[in-house]
Structure formats: C-alpha cells, structure tokens
Design goal:
Elements: H1 3-11, H2 35-47, H3 49-65, H4 69-79, H5 88-108, H6 114-127, H7 132-145, H8 149-160, H9 169-198, H10 204-228, H11 236-248, H12 252-264, H13 272-284, H14 289-302, H15 308-318, H16 322-335, H17 345-360, H18 364-372, H19 378-382, H20 385-394, H21 396-410, H22 415-421, H23 428-441
Helix pairs in contact: 2-3, 3-4, 4-5, 5-6, 6-7, 7-8, 8-9, 9-10, 9-11, 10-11, 11-12, 12-13, 13-14, 14-15, 15-16, 15-17, 16-17, 17-21, 20-21, 20-22, 21-22, 21-23
C-alpha cells in the first residue's frame, strides 16, 4: 500500500502517523495542512466558527477547480469540524457537503484506491444518515465503473432494506431507483449468461442449467425494471434492457407496449430516444412502412437533424402518397439547416435527387415554400465562395451535389455553381450534365448571387 493509502487508512481512526490531528466524530483526518489555512482557521475560531469553516470550504473548492487533489485533501482535515457545529441546520448539511467533496477528491486523487473510497463511503453513510440512500447509490455507481458488479449489487441490496424513521416520499423514490439499478445489474448477469448459452453447442445438460439460471435473473430483473418505467421520467437504459429481455423470450407484444407507453404517454417528459427505440423495434419486427413513418414523423418534429431523418426521407420518397413526397422535401431541407450536416454527402445527394424529381413533377410551389424560408441565409451558410473552394478540395462529389442544388435554387450565375462549372479535365462531362439539368429545372431564370 502506498504512503497516501496508509495515511488515509490510518486517518480513519482519527490520526495520521506522526501528527496530532483535529478530531471529530467522523474519525477522518488528512495530512499536513498549509500554514496559511491554519492561521485563517485559528483566527476564525476565535471570532466565529462559521467563518473558519467557510474559509476552509473556499480553499477546498478552489483546489478542486484547479485539480489540486492533494491540497484539497489536506484542507479537508479542518472542514470536518463542521460536524461539531452547534447550529442544527449546519450539522444537517455538513455530511452531504463532506461526502460530495471527499468523494470527488478520492475519485481523482492519483494515490487513491477503491478500498479507501469504499471505507469513506461506508463511514459517511452512518454519519449522514439522511443521505444513506443517496450515498449508497453513488457508491454503487463507483463500484460499477470499476467493474465490481457483485460488490455494487450487494451494496444496493443492503440499501434497499434500509429504513430511517417513517418512510417519506423521497425515501420511497430513492428505494425504487436503487431497486431499478439492482435490476439493471441482474440484467447484466442475464446478458452474460446468454452469451455463455450461445457457446454451449449441443451440451444439453449444461444448456438447461444455464437456461434456468438465465430465467431466474430475468424474473428478478424484469420485476424491478417494470416498476421503475411506470414512473414518469427518462429511463433509457432500463427500458432498453427490459425490452431486450422481452424480445429474447419472444414477448413482442409486451415489448411493443412498453415502448409505446414510453414514447406516447403524456405524463412522461419529451424524449427523442423513446421514439428511436420504438422505431428500431418496429423495424426489427418488419412493421409496415406506414407505421415506421408515423413514428419518425414525431421524431422529426422533436429533432429535425437526427441521423434517422435520412432514413425517414428514404421511406417518404419510396411512398406512393404525394403528401409523403412533399414531407420528404421538408425533411431533407430540415436536415441541412444544421451545421453538423453541412458536409453530409448523402444528405446533399438526397436533396439534389428529390429537387430534380419534384420539379419534374411540376411541384414548383413545394420547392418555393421551402426555399423562401431559407433564401436569406442558405446562400451564405452553404454556397459561399470560401466553401466552394474548400468543398472542391476536400470532396468533389460533395461539391458537385451542392453545385447542382445551388444552380436549381439560385440560378446558374451563383458563385458556387459558376466555380464548379469552370472546372475542366475529368470534371468536364459531369459539369456539362449538371449545366443541362440546371438549365431545365432551375427555379430561377436569371443569375443568382
């Protein structure tokens, strides 16, 4: 065990080797305190106890912001005095502050360890009794992140049975959350056993044992996951895990009901992922395209730039309904309104193709409706002289598609189209074809900007 670990573990008894420490009933004391803080605190104690602890807290926060973890740990020695504050309100908030600061320091300190963190967490659970459930949950997260799944599960199981006074609504919510995370860990074990099962080719006796074991974990997990997703909230990992298990056991109706409720229940907050999960499930089930379109239509209203919008556009373009073709134009224009999509070659290909088809079918009004909402800013956003040079250098396919769109929307005299039109050599045939199409279908007859 390194020096920091030894000192910290000894400090749990209230003293660091070779030092006299300021004791408190927390029983934790950290190494050498800088003289500047000691003077400030001692001076503060003479005048006002709160002044000294506030001064200390400021030092800790400053050290944490600067990632000075050892210095922050040293300052913590004096902040433990807040647990001896005679003010009842201060005594109530102090354990939570100490837990948050201490756990942050221990999480980042280069000489910390899982054992030290766990010991600190267990101490703080008993001191900050009202924060027992919160600390237990955060402790479990820490253990999960370090791959200690069984320890995290044990921690959550103990926390689930803990009670303090009369059960309050806040306690009830935390217990349900703890149960949900325990269910998620049971799902993790179920998932590992499923992988094991897939490797047991023809070993019937072993396969039967693993199958039964899997089913027991499924029952444990599904019970807790089912409960948490009934409460309005954002429960993405719980929903995905629960649905995966239901699909494995071929309860597709149950899985669809879970996802439908999660996406459409008005009590739940707006969540784009809920509609993504429902769409992906329906796609796996080979649902009719009309049903897929109805799900993505809502996602489009929430996140017009979502990556699934390219898939949505394709579904709309394949549809036989004219209203879907019109919506497809709106969708692909909407995707390209966002900076993250400006160089998406597929999006520009789709727009170029859809514009050409739309104009061939004499739906100039559809194009004008979309373009009129964008003509004041798209030329600068997409079709500037700077961008055309950069696009041509980086991706010629992108440059051609954008030039074609620019020609259709702005006319063959616009900067972007003109620059690409003047490219010779291997580009000559493509340029000629592009010029001809623009001449036939451009929505303007005069040179654009």
């Amino acid at each position: 065990m390194d020096s920091f670990s030894e000192e910290f573990m000894k400090s749990m008894t209230g003293k660091v080797q070779g030092e006299t420490s300021t004791k408190s009933h927390v029983g934790i004391c950290l190494p050498t305190v800088p003289k500047q803080l000691e003077n400030a605190v001692n001076e503060g104690q003479k005048k006002d106890f709160a002044l000294s602890t506030n001064t200390c807290l400021n030092y800790i926060q400053e050290a944490i912001l600067k990632h000075q973890w050892q210095k922050a740990a040293e300052f913590m020695q004096y902040y433990f005095q807040t647990l001896e504050d005679t003010t009842s309100s201060q005594r109530q908030v102090a354990p939570e502050i100490i837990w948050k600061l201490g756990s942050e320091i221990l999480y980042h300190h280069p000489e910390s360890s899982i054992e030290i963190f766990s010991t600190f967490a267990d101490r703080m659970k008993n001191i900050g009794i009202r924060n027992y459930l919160k600390i237990s949950l955060q402790h479990a997260f820490y253990l999960m992140c370090n791959g200690m799944i069984e320890d995290a599960h044990r921690n959550l199981t103990l926390a689930e049975s803990w009670r303090y006074g009369e059960k309050s609504s806040s306690q009830e919510k935390l217990i349900k959350l703890i149960q949900a995370y325990r269910g998620l860990l049971d799902y993790y074990t179920w998932s590992k056993k499923r992988v094991t099962l897939s490797t047991l080719d023809g070993k019937h006796f072993t396969s039967d044992a693993v199958t039964q074991d899997m089913h027991s974990y499924f029952r444990l997990s599904s019970l807790n996951l089912h409960e948490i997703i009934k409460i309005p909230g954002i429960w993405d990992p719980f929903v995905k895990s629960y649905v995966e298990m239901l699909e494995f056991y071929e309860d597709n109706d149950g899985a669809q009901q879970v996802l439908t409720n999660y996406a459409y229940d008005d009590k739940f907050p707006c969540n784009p992922n809920a509609h993504v999960y429902l769409y992906e499930f329906l796609k796996r089930q080979q649902a009719p395209e009309e049903k897929l379109i109805s799900v993505l239509k809502i996602l489009h209203q929430i996140v017009p730039s979502h990556k699934l919008m390219l898939e949505f556009h394709t579904l709309l373009r394949k549809s036989k309904k004219e209203e879907h073709h019109k919506l497809g134009l709106e969708v692909i224009f909407g995707v390209l309104d966002y900076a993250g999509c400006t160089e998406n070659v597929i999006a520009w290909k789709f727009l170029a193709r859809h514009l050409k088809q739309t104009l061939k079918r004499k739906h100039l009004d559809w194009v004008e409706e979309e373009w009129n909402a964008r003509k004041d800013w798209w030329p600068t956003f997409h079709f500037s002289y700077f961008l055309v040079k950069r696009n041509w250098k980086k991706n010629k396919t992108l440059a051609y598609k954008k030039a074609f769109v620019a020609g259709l929307l702005l006319g063959k005299g616009c900067k972007y189209f003109t620059y690409i039109s003047n490219r010779g050599g291997k580009a000559e045939m493509k340029v000629k074809k592009m010029k001809k199409l623009v001449q036939q279908h451009s929505i303007v007859n005069t040179a654009g900007p």
